[in-house]
Design brief:
Layout lengths: L2 H7 L7 H22 L2 E2 L2 E2 L2 H18 L1 H18 L5 H10 L1 E9 L2 E10 L3 E9 L12 E12 L9 E11 L8 E12 L12 E13 L5 E15 L7 E2 L5 E7 L7 E13 L2 E8 L8 E2 L4 E4 L4 E6 L12 E8 L8 E6 L3 E4 L4
Antiparallel strand pairs: 1-2, 3-4, 4-5, 5-8, 6-9, 7-8, 9-10, 11-13, 12-13, 12-15, 13-14, 14-18, 16-17, 16-19, 17-18, 19-20
Helix pairs in contact: 2-3, 4-5
C-alpha cells in the first residue's frame, strides 16, 4: 500500500495536494500498528491483508472528509501563500490564517456553471477570495500551465454604511489557479486578490462588518503560447452578498518623516536616484502603504521606491512587491502614495523593522 495508491483512492476529495499528502502521511503512521495487529492472529483468526488495506483507505477517507470544512476556510489560503512565496509557512502564520479567514459557502449556477464563493480573508486594503468553479462534464477548467481562468467582468460594491472619504489612487485584481487535487478537468479553484489604494487621509476600503455585493460575469479562458487566445465559456452572471470581517490591524511606523532613496523616471526612461521624504509608512498583515513628498528643489515626474523588505524579530526577511499601479507615484505632483504586498501574511507582533533604500531602517514601534 503506497502513497500513489492511497492518493488515487481519495482523488475526488477536493483539497490542496500538499494537505492531502500530510493527511496520508499521518494516517499511514497512525494506522501502522492497527494494520499489524489486524493482519496477525487474533481470537477471530487471521485477518487478510486486503481487509487491512480497506481499513486504511476507509480511515483515510473519513479523515479527509472530516477536515473538508477546515480546508474551505483556511488551507486554500495557505496553499496560495506557499505557492506565491516559494517557501513553507510558520506555525504562527498557519494559525493566523485559520483564525482570520471566514467561511462563506455561497453557490450559484448559471449557464451550466456553478460558482461558489468559498471563503475570504482581508485587511483594510487587501481582499483574498477563494472561488470554486464546476462546469459541465467535458469542459476544461483545470488548465494547469496551459492557460488562465478568469472573469472578464466584475463589480464590487458596498450594500450599506461604507462611504469613501477619499479617492482611489489605484486598484487591481489578480487571479491565481490553485490545484484542487481532484484530478477533474471540469473543476477549478481560483484565488482572487483585490487590492485598492486610496489617497492620503482616506478611510479603509474593506471595513469590519460591512456587507459587500460581488458580481461576476463572462467566465473566460486565456490560452495559447502567448496567452493571447481568449475564449468565453459562459456569460453568467453570479452575484453574492456577504459580510467581510477584516482584522483591523494597521501600524504606523513613522512619527517623524524620514529620507530615503527613490528612483526617478518611468518605464522606458532613464533612471536616476533621488532623495524623497517618507511622511507615513503603514503596515497591515498583507501589505504596506507609503506616503511621500519631494525635497525642496527636487521634483521628478515619476518616482519608484524599490527593494524594500521587512525583517522579523527572529531575523527572517519578508519581501514586499509593488501593489496595483506598480508602486508608481503620482504624475508631476508634490507628493504621492505607493503600495506594496507581502509575499506571506505578517504577524505584526513579530515584526522588527522595515528597510527602505538605501539601508534606511524604520523600527517597529513597541506594542
Amino acid at each position: 500500500m503506497d502513497f500513489e495508491h492511497l492518493s488515487n483512492s481519495v482523488k475526488d476529495i477536493k483539497m490542496p495536494n500538499d494537505m492531502k499528502k500530510r493527511i496520508i502521511d499521518n494516517t499511514l503512521q497512525q494506522t501502522e500498528e492497527t494494520i499489524f495487529e489486524s493482519t496477525s492472529e487474533s481470537r477471530y483468526g487471521v485477518v487478510p491483508r486486503k481487509s487491512a488495506a480497506v481499513l486504511l483507505i476507509a480511515t483515510l477517507v473519513l479523515s479527509m472528509s472530516a477536515v473538508a470544512f477546515a480546508v474551505s476556510t483556511s488551507d486554500w489560503f495557505a496553499a496560495f501563500f506557499i505557492q506565491r512565496s516559494g517557501s513553507t509557512l510558520t506555525p504562527d502564520q498557519y494559525q493566523f490564517i485559520a483564525e482570520k479567514s471566514v467561511g462563506i459557502g455561497q453557490s450559484i449556477t448559471s449557464d451550466g456553471y456553478t460558482v461558489t464563493v468559498d471563503s475570504a480573508i482581508c485587511d483594510a486594503h487587501n481582499l483574498y477570495l477563494v472561488i470554486q468553479i464546476e462546469g459541465p462534464v467535458g469542459c476544461k477548467l483545470d488548465l494547469g500551465n496551459e492557460g488562465n481562468l478568469y472573469f472578464a467582468r466584475t463589480k464590487f460594491e458596498s450594500t450599506g454604511r461604507y462611504e469613501s472619504t477619499g479617492d482611489i489612487i489605484s486598484s487591481g485584481m489578480r487571479y491565481v489557479d490553485i490545484d484542487d487535487g481532484d484530478k477533474k478537468e471540469n473543476t477549478a479553484v481560483l484565488l482572487i486578490h483585490c487590492h485598492r489604494v486610496l489617497t492620503v487621509g482616506s478611510n479603509q476600503v474593506y471595513t469590519d462588518g460591512e456587507i459587500w455585493r460581488f458580481h461576476f460575469a463572462d467566465l473566460c479562458t486565456q490560452t495559447g503560447e502567448l496567452y493571447d487566445v481568449q475564449t468565453l465559456l459562459a456569460e453568467g452572471g453570479w452575484s453574492f452578498e456577504f459580510r467581510l470581517s477584516e482584522m483591523s490591524e494597521e501600524v504606523e511606523l513613522i512619527d517623524t518623516p524620514v529620507v530615503c532613496v527613490a528612483q526617478s523616471g518611468g518605464e522606458g526612461m532613464s533612471r536616476e536616484n533621488v532623495e524623497i521624504m517618507v511622511t507615513s509608512l503603514v503596515l497591515s498583515p498583507f501589505g504596506a502603504t507609503c506616503n511621500y513628498s519631494f525635497l525642496p528643489g527636487s521634483k521628478p515626474k515619476f518616482v519608484d521606491i524599490l527593494d524594500i523588505y521587512l525583517v522579523t524579530k527572529d531575523g527572517c526577511i519578508v519581501t514586499l512587491s509593488p501593489g496595483s499601479g506598480g508602486g508608481a507615484g503620482a504624475y508631476d505632483s508634490e507628493s504621492g502614495t505607493m503600495s506594496y504586498v507581502f509575499s506571506v501574511p505578517i504577524i505584526l507582533d513579530n515584526a522588527a523593522y522595515l528597510v527602505l533604500p538605501d539601508n534606511v531602517q524604520v523600527p517597529f514601534p513597541e506594542r
